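step=encode ok
step=design start
structure_in=
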């Protein structure tokens, strides 16, 4: 499709270029996103099980500790690295670690909303389409909830994906490669953006720049090399590969082998469409717009295919279609929680922008004599509708049973039991480690399915090695959350060791959801 370039805003005294106007729009929508996302209880939303692990990883890095040696982490390290920078900057400004990291990820998601505007505005040469797309992004409650939880790796995936797709559409191959690599470093499945970024300059039928492949490749390589050098310098490279790839492969082999591939795909499709849809997108209106947007985005690609030979391979459309299809395939293979749907948020938003573009084109055809004026009215009208919908769908102030303040109170209650150099062995999450600024005795913490069947398998000797490490350096406190870990076969040996050396101190409510409690034991020799 051919799009006419945007015009400058001019008057006798002032001339503002379209680029300046677009960056002003980016800034305004980023600020609006900060306001909207803050309503999801930015200051007092509780730290979740998963986010506590990423937060603890950030604390370790900020203290100069090797990440994968000191912590079993099944995700690539960008979220802890970004968290570490936030902690160091926050400490310099007198900010508490938890809030410093939360602010950093809140800002990242808001910048993503501004990026949606730039991307969609460039694709359709319509500021109304870009604004509607950004507003649709703000209306997705799964985006808003994730924006304030703290170190959510998929927040960085969404941000990197938006700017990768935007850079590809503008033929900025080096920047696209960097963003693709950053997406992978945030979460391994987002690595699918790397082959997309590498293929786009080779396939684009309108500007075939085969030599530009080198720029994309250099962009991909730069962040990967920097992180590899960092891990190598920390002596953590082997452990990183074992945790991020070995553990995940072991998990997929175990789960797929038990259920079979097709039953697994079918079950995940049902969970996504039936069981999880209402929960992940609590507002039915938002879910409806999301689905319409997705259909529109796919329809835009189909239109390009019909209207121009090989148009679907252009740098504007091919990355969108490939990203959507590949991520949908992975989600069918490994869907666990609502956060797994976050990478689709830019596609939903793009679809909402596509609706504006289609409306503008239809109206311009109806009244050719006043095409531009009517098309502008169509875009402005849909923009007004989406502004009203955004106001309608804003979340009310959160009323939570568990809050960050209550979690801190639990940690403060346990603090007097610890002396200055005491360690904790926390199993199930890292909340107490984060709040009390303590080190874990072993690298094993989280007991999700990937840890139980993955990380533990990467440790020579398994649970026997963990118990030996605990014997060699007994922690003052042992804390257990995620009650389901007690069903694991290897937990019986750990329970025997625990009963022999520790006495129960108490059970404390610290989380929301199905596993709200943390059970705490204290060493029998402690005073």
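sequence_out=
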């Amino acid at each position: 499709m051919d799009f006419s370039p945007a015009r400058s805003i001019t008057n006798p005294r002032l001339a503002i270029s379209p680029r300046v106007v677009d960056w002003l729009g980016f800034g305004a929508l980023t600020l609006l996103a900060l306001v909207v996302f803050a309503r999801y209880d930015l200051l007092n939303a509780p730290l979740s099980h998963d986010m506590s692990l990423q937060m603890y990883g950030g604390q370790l890095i900020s203290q100069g500790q090797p990440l994968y040696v000191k912590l079993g982490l099944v995700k690539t390290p960008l979220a802890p690295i970004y968290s570490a920078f936030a902690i160091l900057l926050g400490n310099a400004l007198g900010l508490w670690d938890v809030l410093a990291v939360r602010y950093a990820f809140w800002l990242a998601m808001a910048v993503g909303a501004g990026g949606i505007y730039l991307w969609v505005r460039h694709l359709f040469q319509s500021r109304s389409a870009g604004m509607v797309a950004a507003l649709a992004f703000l209306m997705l409650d799964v985006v808003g909830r994730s924006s304030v939880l703290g170190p959510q790796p998929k927040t960085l995936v969404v941000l990197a994906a938006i700017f990768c797709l935007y850079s590809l559409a503008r033929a900025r191959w080096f920047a696209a490669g960097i963003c693709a690599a950053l997406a992978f470093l945030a979460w391994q499945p987002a690595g699918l953006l790397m082959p997309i970024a590498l293929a786009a300059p080779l396939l684009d039928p309108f500007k075939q720049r085969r030599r530009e492949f080198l720029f994309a490749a250099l962009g991909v390589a730069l962040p990967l090399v920097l992180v590899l050098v960092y891990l190598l310098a920390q002596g953590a490279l082997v452990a990183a590969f074992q945790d991020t790839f070995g553990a995940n492969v072991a998990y997929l082999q175990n789960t797929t082998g038990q259920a079979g591939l097709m039953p697994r795909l079918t079950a995940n499709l049902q969970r996504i469409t039936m069981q999880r849809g209402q929960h992940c997108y609590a507002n039915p209106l938002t879910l409806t717009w999301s689905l319409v947007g997705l259909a529109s985005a796919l329809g835009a690609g189909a239109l390009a295919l019909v209207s121009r030979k090989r148009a679907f391979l252009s740098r504007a459309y091919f990355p969108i279609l490939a990203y959507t299809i590949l991520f949908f395939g992975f989600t069918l293979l490994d869907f666990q929680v609502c956060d797994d749907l976050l990478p689709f948020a830019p596609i939903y938003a793009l679809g909402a922008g596509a609706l504006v573009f289609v409306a503008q084109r239809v109206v311009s055809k109806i009244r050719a004599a006043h095409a531009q004026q009517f098309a502008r009215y169509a875009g402005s009208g849909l923009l007004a509708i989406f502004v009203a919908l955004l106001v309608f769908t804003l979340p009310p102030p959160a009323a939570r049973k568990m809050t960050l303040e209550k979690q801190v109170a639990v940690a403060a209650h346990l603090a007097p039991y610890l002396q200055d150099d005491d360690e904790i062995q926390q199993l199930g999450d890292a909340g107490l480690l984060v709040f009390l600024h303590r080190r874990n005795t072993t690298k094993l913490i989280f007991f999700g399915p990937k840890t139980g069947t993955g990380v533990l398998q990467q440790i020579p000797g398994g649970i026997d090695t963990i118990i030996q490490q605990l014997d060699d350096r007994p922690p003052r406190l042992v804390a257990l959350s995620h009650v389901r870990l007690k069903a694991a076969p290897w937990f019986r040996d750990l329970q025997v060791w625990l009963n022999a050396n520790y006495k129960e101190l108490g059970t404390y409510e610290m989380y929301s959801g199905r596993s709200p409690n943390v059970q705490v034991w204290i060493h029998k020799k402690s005073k």
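step=design ok
step=annotate ok -> Confidence is low (pLDDT under 50) at residues 1-12.
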